Amino acid sequence: MGTIVSFHAHPDDESIGTAGTLARAAAAGHRVVLVFATRGELGEPVPGVLEPGEQLPVRRSAECYASAAAIGAKRVEFLGYTDSGMMGEPSNAAPYCFWQAEVEHAARRLAVILDEEEPDILTVYDDNGGYGHPDHIQVHRVGKRAAELSAVPVVAQHTINRDWMIRGMRGMAESGELPDGWQPPNFEEPTFGKPESEITHRVDAVDFVEQKRASMRAHASQMGPDHFLLAMPDPVFALGMGTEFYIVDPVPSPASAELFEELFTPLR
Q: What domains sit in the chain, N to C, each tagged with a CATH number?
């Protein structure tokens, strides 16, 4: 049995990004661990979802455990930093937010968990955090340093395959498979994901899209039934969310990375 630790900035990031990979690993009998840098204090709750007096970070923390159950994760941890908000917001300057954390110190916090788990793989984000969010960029920096401190053999940087998404949406639009009135986000934004030329691996998680969708639904304070991801028709959801992409550099040798070889397929 192998172990994969998946490090994320906020509750619900795991469901959107790596839930398929994690569900596939858990279904095969491997240990899955979720670590969150923050409790998503600055998220915008779905109107009417919170009970009177209910605090958003408490609700979002509980949602992490429901998501973990949907994925099959066995452990959930929080590093204790607070949400930094979107890039350029005044909240970026709060001394206790994750964006302001000293990378070495934050990495040592994460390394405590890594030392306990001795994972075969640590997932983080690419160097732009997928779309430029400061906490996501910090996950990249802190995660890579923590992996060095704990000698984790594989660091897999989750990213969005911009070219693949554009091709898929154009193809479905031309064939009439997109429902009338359904508007996808602008995947051509240059800060969104990475070009395919920079991506090294993918994980086929099409058989686990229902677990991924259940993980998203667990985060009901952030994703209502009309959220654009949950509102995707099944074929569009399977296309857009059923394959997860990663940058792995350096690529480990097969002899030292059995779980990696089992889950990850080279893109070229």
A: 3-266 (3.40.50.10320)
